[in-house]
Design goal:
CATH architecture of the largest domain: 2-Layer Sandwich
Largest sheet: 8 strands, antiparallel
Number of strands: 18
Structural class: alpha+beta
CATH topology of the largest domain: D-amino Acid Aminotransferase, Chain A, domain 1
Strand order of the largest sheet: 13-12-9-10-11-14-17-16
Radius of gyration: 21 Å
Oligomer: single chain
């Protein structure tokens, strides 16, 4: 039986369809009030899905009651939990040493640097004094982030020591990292390693601002690189060098991020041992021929996959761009009534009356979108022109009742 660690963000995924051979025999741990969908024989719920102890205890109860053969985790928060359960119950898949390297940004960079990967200067930060010492040794802007964070949550760019008080309490809470700010274009590479070797790698370039665009209420996305682009091969090679530098796992789906500086140097940002967040799965589905979460779920659960078909589809795919609009600080008064011309997989992820103001807005992640879509084209120029037009059309189709502070900022 397969145990699915089901983050609420992944509620609604068709696990019974993806894992058809096991439908009706699936097990799940999820948050209270979440419907896991059909196909599950038993479900354990927890009040707070971010409570590691509660989630692991619920998973253990299922492992002790049923003959669990695999543990499936699609969310960042579940990567280390799943690895610990595999270790405890002697199950196949990624183990804790490897999982930690793909989550802990300090350990990750230590191993990457030892493997010859260019990384920014970095250091653990357990107190504001650690950040001040780092800034004294490395003049210029720095980035402070949680060591195990995702979706750009908790990331702060400090231009000078005067900016430190705003994040001091967060740093004192522990488990943070500080690193030098790297200027340059921002890329991601989504890659699958299975069956003893690399299967497919998809390098893409983020739009301006990348995953920090939501800080300025700007949409963001990325587009796949042309195979003829010299950076295509360089980024693919660097990704596999990075994977080789980290502790191995029987199979991996990775989402790696790199900067390319004005001096044409590739510098690691970070790498995650999971499929990239929304709307990257939709873009990868257009490239690979099936949802990458579907692909990874079957591989992780030991079920057959036609990897040659995946390779062939990726080789023949057109250029694809994904894009998403972030929420504003207020309440939604109007949503699009149809898909803008030129889009595919257009999805409105919000409704009239939904309130994104206040604390919810302050805690938004880079993957929180009110609408997402794809565009495809034969060449980069055509692709980017279509992306810009569809962004403008979608933005205009939404209406907002902004909170007073947001209205003043716009003025």
């Amino acid at each position: 039986m397969i145990l699915v660690l089901l983050s609420p963000r992944n509620a609604g995924l068709p696990f019974a369809e993806w894992l058809g051979e096991e439908a009706g025999r699936l097990l799940a741990v999820t948050a209270r009030g979440v419907d896991p969908g059909p196909g599950f024989q038993a479900v354990e719920t927890v009040a707070d899905y971010f409570d590691d102890t509660a989630v692991r205890e619920a998973a253990r109860r299922l492992c002790e009651r049923y003959a669990v053969t695999r543990v499936l985790a699609l969310a960042e928060v579940d990567v280390e939990r799943a690895a610990a359960l595999r270790e405890e119950f002697a199950l196949p898949g990624q183990r804790p040493e490897s999982a930690r390297a793909y989550r802990d940004k300090v350990r990750m960079k230590e191993l990457a640097a030892a493997g010859g990967i260019r990384v920014p200067a970095f250091a653990p930060a357990d107190s504001p004094a650690d950040v001040l010492a780092f800034m004294a040794a490395h003049p210029g802007p720095v980035v402070v982030k949680p060591r195990g964070g995702s979706g750009s949550t908790g990331v702060a760019v400090l231009d000078t020591p005067d900016d430190l008080p705003a994040v001091a309490d967060r740093i004192r809470a522990g488990d943070h990292e500080v690193e030098e700010f790297v200027a340059g274009r921002f890329f991601h590479v989504d890659a699958l390693h299975a069956g003893g070797g690399p299967v497919v790698s998809v390098p893409s370039l983020y739009t301006d601002g990348g995953c920090l665009s939501h800080w300025t209420d700007s949409g963001n996305g990325s587009w796949t690189l042309e195979r003829e682009d010299p950076l295509h091969r360089r980024l693919v090679d660097e990704t596999w060098r990075l994977v080789a530098a980290l502790p191995a796992a029987p199979a991996l789906f990775v989402h790696a991020e790199f900067f390319v500086t004005d001096a044409d140097e590739i510098v690691l940002c970070e790498i995650a041992g999971r499929v990239g967040g929304t709307p990257i799965p939709a873009m990868l589905e257009a490239v690979l021929g099936l949802d990458p979460r579907h692909l990874w779920a079957r591989i992780e659960c030991g079920l057959p996959v036609d990897l040659d078909a995946v390779r062939a589809h990726a080789h023949a795919a057109p250029l694809v761009a994904n894009f998403g609009l972030p929420p504003r600080n207020g309440r939604i008064t109007r949503v699009p009534t149809g898909a803008p011309d030129g889009t595919r997989d257009f999805a409105v992820l919000a409704e009239v009356g939904e309130d994104w103001g206040g604390a919810r807005y302050a805690g938004r992640k880079s993957g929180d979108f009110i609408a997402t879509w794809l565009v495809t084209a034969a060449g980069e120029g055509e692709l980017l022109a279509l992306l810009a037009k569809t962004e403008a059309d979608t933005e205009a189709a939404f209406g907002w009742d902004l909170v007073a502070a947001a209205v003043e900022e716009e003025r």
